[in-house]
Specification:
Layout lengths: L19 H15 L11 H13 L3 H5 L3 H11 L6 E4 L6 H7 L4 E6 L2 H14 L3 E5 L12 E7 L8 H11 E12 L4 H12 L15 H7 L5 E14 L2 H11 L1 H8 L3 H18 L7 E14 L1
Parallel strand pairs: 1-2, 1-4, 2-3, 4-5
Antiparallel strand pairs: 5-7, 6-7
Helix pairs in contact: 1-9, 2-11, 4-5, 8-12, 10-11
């Protein structure tokens, strides 16, 4: 009987370690065997989930957090080895970290998101730097572009939050030209942000049946999302360091401006809010390496470069 459990055989010590791309190729047939849902699996209203997510990202002010992550966009552009004049698409761009990084390298950039306010914030940043960028409201699961429209397609901590992960991955592949590249930066389940979502999920469970966003930061999930023949996938573990005045300062910023955290607290009663506050502070304490009252927390993410075949 297929229980859905995936077993991975460890390699002998004297055998060469597999690269991430080789691991993905090895995992694909095993994943295919367990991927089929059970006949009695509940139907998921993905449209309703998406509407709630859109409301979450529209709340607060993601740009306050997003601008601190700019270096991730710069590093992704370098990993992709973007070239001046290339047509670049930023999917679920937020306030435009990858967008600005590509535009600074003289690429022809189109920046998309389904939250208009975030696009306007990104536009203001581009105007301030004198950068030419096209902005367009768009759903990452239904991109309004023809097949093979872009040389490079990228997303930093954006597309990973789509409720229909398979559809979003297929759209990234569809709009990328053969021979082009797809670049992603995705939080991992084991890293600080992945653990933050896990902690919040204990207090406010996510919608049943919806796959966790940080799964995009795992080799196994990448093998499912990008099929054989469509892409060559290479991934590298990277670290972004959150630097705040204190754990309390970080929590105040995330609770006020970061949509998912804001909404999580808003949905809880005061006593439950206190419990969540305590658990999040404990999480910071577990990761914090500052050695002083400030917060210096490394958060692992996966930097992914996909070559479109």
């Amino acid at each position: 009987m297929n229980t859905g459990t995936l077993f991975i055989r460890l390699k002998p010590r004297n055998q060469r370690a597999l690269s991430v791309d080789e691991k993905i190729q090895e995992l694909r047939p095993k994943l295919a065997a367990v991927a089929a849902p059970a006949a009695n699996s509940p139907q998921i209203d993905l449209a309703a989930v998406k509407a709630r997510q859109q409301g979450a990202w529209s709340s607060g002010n993601y740009a306050i957090v997003g601008t601190t992550l700019q270096v991730v966009g710069e590093e992704l552009c370098e990993a992709l080895d973007v070239r001046s004049g290339q047509k670049v698409l930023d999917v679920a761009a937020g306030n435009g970290n990858f967008t600005l990084a590509a535009a600074r390298r003289w690429c022809q950039v189109v920046s998309t998101d389904y939250v208009p306010a975030l696009l306007e914030q990104g536009r203001s940043r581009a105007v301030a730097e004198g950068l030419e960028v096209q902005y367009r409201e768009a759903d990452a699961e239904a991109l309004p572009f023809k097949d093979a429209s872009f040389d490079v397609v990228g997303s930093t901590f954006g597309v990973m939050f789509t409720p229909n992960q398979e559809r979003a991955a297929a759209e990234l592949i569809r709009v990328c030209k053969p021979g082009g590249k797809i670049g992603l930066a995705n939080w991992t389940p084991e890293g600080f942000i992945g653990q933050m979502f896990k902690t919040m999920g204990k207090h406010l469970p996510p919608p049943a049946g919806v796959k966790s966003p940080p799964l995009w930061g795992t080799v196994a999930r990448l093998a499912e999302l990008f099929p054989v023949g469509a892409a060559s996938v290479k991934a590298q573990s990277r670290i972004f360091v959150f630097r705040y005045k204190s754990a309390e300062h970080w929590l105040d910023v995330f609770r006020t401006f970061y949509g998912p955290t804001l909404k999580a607290f808003a949905a809880l009663e005061p006593k439950a809010q206190t419990a969540l506050t305590s658990d999040l502070k404990a999480l910071v304490e577990r990761f914090n390496r500052s050695g002083d009252p400030t917060m210096v927390v490394p958060s692992e993410y996966l930097q992914i470069v996909i070559e479109r075949r």
